[in-house]
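Question (not urgent): is this output format expected?
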Amino acid sequence: MSERLNLLKSFIQKNASTVVSMLLLVVVPVVVSSTLAIILYSYQDLLQNLTLGQMALYFVIISFTMALALTPTTFVALVSGFYLSWVGFPGLVVAYGIAALIGYSLARQIDHGKMMSFLNGFEKARILMQELRHQSWSLIFLTRISPVLPFALMNFVLSLLQINKRKFLLASMVGMLPRTLFFFWIGTQANNIISLLESPDSGRNGQLLMIALIIISIGGLYFIFDRALKKALRKASHQNE
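Got this back:
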């Protein structure tokens, strides 16, 4: 027991900045999105009738706010659908990609490879990380299609695996498409921004779709981790023979 506590203490000490950053990526979006909802309530025509230049600026801004966990991706998709309609959808998809790359780069700068260096000190963990890296496309895709896994946090976690940046970008954008399309569509159907943000009405079919995406994500991730763990244990046992 004491050995495990010492290991946990060592892990936190050596990766303090990474652990704190990951916690903030979970808490901050909830606080900021609530504040923005109040602002949109007070200024409901704030994003209406944007010019192409203003729309481009909007996408640049949300790329950074999503990357920094200031705005949840679901919130952004709902608002963008409501104010911009389908003309803004391509820009939103590109903004998601840019946000993913920004989050990826920031995480690498914060962590400096410390987390992976710590894990590489344990043979089984090192082999497991290698196996997960080999399945990185499926891993990224499955984390992205889930509507419940925080976007910015997943940027951080996935960057720790030191996945190829191009693969990270493409898998992220493809994986985000189903739920982005769904929540954007809900935004285009809404009549009032406040009721939209308080209770997005997805209907029975929409709820079934969300449940299906969650099940696919959880089931797929379980399969990947289970297979990678079994391979890691086999390789570790062979190396120790």
